[in-house]
Amino acid sequence: MPSTSSTRNTPTAPRQAATEGLTTTPSPLRDWHADHKSHLTRGERAADLMRNGMGSWAFVGGFVAFMIVWAIINTVTKGWDPYPFILLNLFLSMLAGLQGAILLIAAKRQDAIAAALSKHDYNTNVAAKKDIEAVLEINKRQLLMIADLQEILGRLDPAGTKKS
Predict the structure, then answer these.
(1) What's the pLDDT tens digit per position in 56-75?
(2) Residue ranges covered by each domain of the chain
(3) DSSP labels for 42-86?
């Protein structure tokens, strides 16, 4: 009665030997952007919205329109801010100060995002390197098995004659 505990004599033994010690389940893919957005605080989301809003042509156009309307109302009528538009200058100065701070906050957030993406890319590259090394190891084992098979074929047909 043949031994069932030995896998060396089974047809799948070379395959088992070639893949022994290698992981066959790939690591799951992650969507970094979705993970990142789900962990944003309310302030971070507000900074992103303000940055995106103030950096748009719609904001620039709306702001220019607001200043034109302000100037027309205060020039044509006896408005609250006569010609040198001192109140408008005050509002523009305050807006410039706030925009500077908001842009710095947004730049800081962009730096944090770039750093996190860089870390994610590094981790992806490390995982890919491991996968490539595993594939190269499988390839090396396959080449050894091919050499073994060629040696066995050489022993079976030492003259190298082919039968038709």
Answers:
(1) 899 889 999 999 999 998 88
(2) 43-145
(3) HHHHHHHHHHHHHTSHHHHHHHHHHHHHHHHHHHHS--SS-TT-H
